[in-house]
Amino acid sequence: MKNTIDKAIGTIRFSIPKTVWLYFIVLPIFWIDFSKLNSKLLLITSILICFTVGLGHSIGLHRGVIHKTYTTTKTVRNVLLYLFVLTGLGSPLHWIKLHYYRDYWQNRLDCPPYFAYKHSLIRDFWWNLHLQFTANNIKRYNIPKEDLNDKWIIWLHKTWYLHNLLFTLLVYLLSDMNTVLIIMFLRMAITILGHWFVGFMTHKYGYARFNIENANESAYNDLILGLLSFGEGFHNNHHAHPNSAKFSLKWYEIDAGWYLIILLKKLRLINNVKEVGTANTIKQQAKKNNHIIWSFPWNFKTT
Fold first, then answer.
1. Sign of the dihedral through C-alpha 118, 121, 122, 126
2. CA nearest 94: which of 61, 45, 72, 67?
3. What single string gives the DSSP state of each residue in 225-258?
4. Distance (Å, rounded) from C-alpha 88 to C-alpha 191?
5. Distance separating alpha carbons of residues 220 and 239, to the nearest angstrom
């Protein structure tokens, strides 16, 4: 952790609860009897991933609460946040704060190493999944007070793990332990590790249309990770258009999260959806490159 962040900014410490939860979820998957895996279990797991990761994380928390790319009722917002909790990623309040911290520093040239992506995959695995950042002055990040003081968000912050444990117990009572290991532990392990992996890879490798001036990070797009992560893998597009509900810009960039937004809009569950081309969606410092910039794992870059 040495030299990863200035003490005037905050502190970084090893998080016992975060680490215990990670391995509590990951280690049991080694006891799965995959010979009993069938199409029904795959379908149920896929549906849960769609609801929790797609609707809960990408649409509800990320594009909704954090970036406010659409408006909705408090009831719909609360349901989406509850679906986020069932991803197993943790407290929505924690993720709201962390996103504002990262966004603040990554859009500055003096970004601390902890928030920059100049390190290896192994180091990021340790930093991202085992350490906890605590800000010294939370006011500098301009996190909306209505989010910090929201009673539902605070309640989920205090109880998020209980909901996952109760859901796990319910699945066990309705099925068996192997089903629990697949539907709950394997699903959450894929979500936790997948979220971390997509975040690392799309800040390091892929293609970029935009350069964020005076910023440490402009991020990259990845077609495969974008497809698998409900559009979250189109990270350069997102950095350039943070208030757009649509993360894809070309026909070949498949943003499944955007299709879910279209569905919710048709069902009149969300309104006033922002997207690229509408007002207040493009950062002033986001400049389109003359050519697409590529970054590869072997550190070879070309245009």
1. positive
2. 61
3. HHHHTTTTTBHHHHHHSTT-S----STTS--HHH
4. 8
5. 9
Residue written as token pair 């943790």: 90
Q: Is residue 115 part of a domain?
A: yes
In percent, how much of the chain has pLDDT > 70?
94
Confirm whether 149 is domain-assigned: yes
CB atoms within 10 A of CB 31: 10
d(CA 21, CA 121): 21
Neighbours of 254 (CB within 10 A): 19
C-beta separation of 180 from 168 below 8 A: yes
Please determine, for residue 160, whether its predicted confidence score (pLDDT) is greater than 50.
yes
Kindly report the pTM of this predicted structure.
0.94
Segments forming the whole domain that contains residue 191? 10-302
Q: Would the pLDDT of 288 be above 50?
A: yes
1 located within any domain? no
Paired tokens of 117: 């992506």
Q: How many domains does the chain have?
A: 1
Instruction: Report which secondary-structure segment, H or E, holds 132.
Output: strand 131-135
pLDDT of residue 286: 73
Residue ranges in the chain assigned as alpha helix (H):
16-26, 39-49, 74-85, 92-106, 121-130, 145-148, 151-174, 177-180, 187-204, 223-228, 235-240, 256-266
Measuring CA to CA, which residue among 295, 301, 3, 293 is closest to residue 123?
3
Asked if residue 2 is part of any domain, the answer here is no
Q: How far apart are CA 283 and CA 37, in angstroms?
A: 46
